[in-house]
Amino acid sequence: MHRSKRSEVVRPRLIIAVVAVALLSAACGSQDDDVALSDGASPTPATVATASSPTSSPTSSPTSSPTPSDDESQTPSDDEPQATPVFNGGTEDVVLEGAQGDVAVLQEVRVARQAEFDRVIWEFSGDVPTVRAGYDDEPLEPGRGEPVDVAGTTAVVMAAEPAVDLATELHAPAQEAYDGPERVTGSNTEVVSEAVRMGDFEANLQWAVGVNSRQPFRVDTLEDPLRVVLDIAH
């Protein structure tokens, strides 16, 4: 009877010991997990979650073409129509005031075709004269009043003062003067038929430029060398 009671006492103690060992083992395992997390090792589920939610676009996605900014040059192609330059002229009389200095002496006369107009150039020595230009259907020789024959339907008369084309004792003595033809034509001009010397009277030199129709014109003076330039639009 005494032996059986002792066995009954020992068995509960053994069960308690086994339970204590199991609890101790569980506690050690939990402590090891805390140490592993504190060392920076990420658990596998967290890694998988991060990989499934990428924050950057895949490198294999196509790159869209950039939109040109307002600063980029927009050069028209050769197929697009280009704007035609505007000819700044008219058909009314024009007066350009000169330097009122020494008499201008004519040296050369030239007629040429340009892209948008025909050009007549009178080259001078001396100071810039006052220049007048305008249309005249019946140009007359200065001083005498005789009609001047000019090819074309009308003429632009250019008058320069004080200016001469012949050196005399009164005007520009000892200077070389114009010794070219009294009628000057150009090559392939479109509206200008010829430039004709009308003469000079009291230092008023006049030339008539025959044209086929009344077109806008412009006149200007240039220096180095001194020139009077008349442009008549096509």
Could you characterize the architecture of this molecule?
This protein has two helices and eleven strands, in the order ααβββββββββββ. The protein has 234 residues and is of the alpha+beta class. It has two domains: 50 residues; 140 residues, Immunoglobulin-like (Sandwich). The strands form two sheets. It has a six-stranded antiparallel beta sheet, with no helix packed on it. Strands 6-2-3-11-10 form a five-stranded mixed beta sheet, with no helix packed on it. The longest helix is centred in the first third of the chain and has 37 residues. The N terminus is likely disordered.
In short:
The chain has 234 residues and is of the alpha+beta class.
The Cα radius of gyration reads 53 Å
* Helix-strand category: alpha+beta
**Shape estimate:** globular
Low-pLDDT regions: 1-82
The total number of structural domains is 2
Question: How do the strands and helices of this protein lay out in sequence?
Answer:
Blueprint: H1 2-38, H2 44-51, E1 94-96, E2 104-113, E3 117-125, E4 130-136, E5 154-161, E6 163-164, E7 183-184, E8 192-201, E9 204-211, E10 217-222, E11 226-233
Parallel strand pairs: 2-6
Antiparallel strand pairs: 1-4, 2-3, 3-11, 4-5, 5-9, 7-8, 8-9, 10-11
Features:
234 residues; 2 domains; single chain; Immunoglobulin-like; six-stranded antiparallel sheet; alpha+beta; disordered N terminus
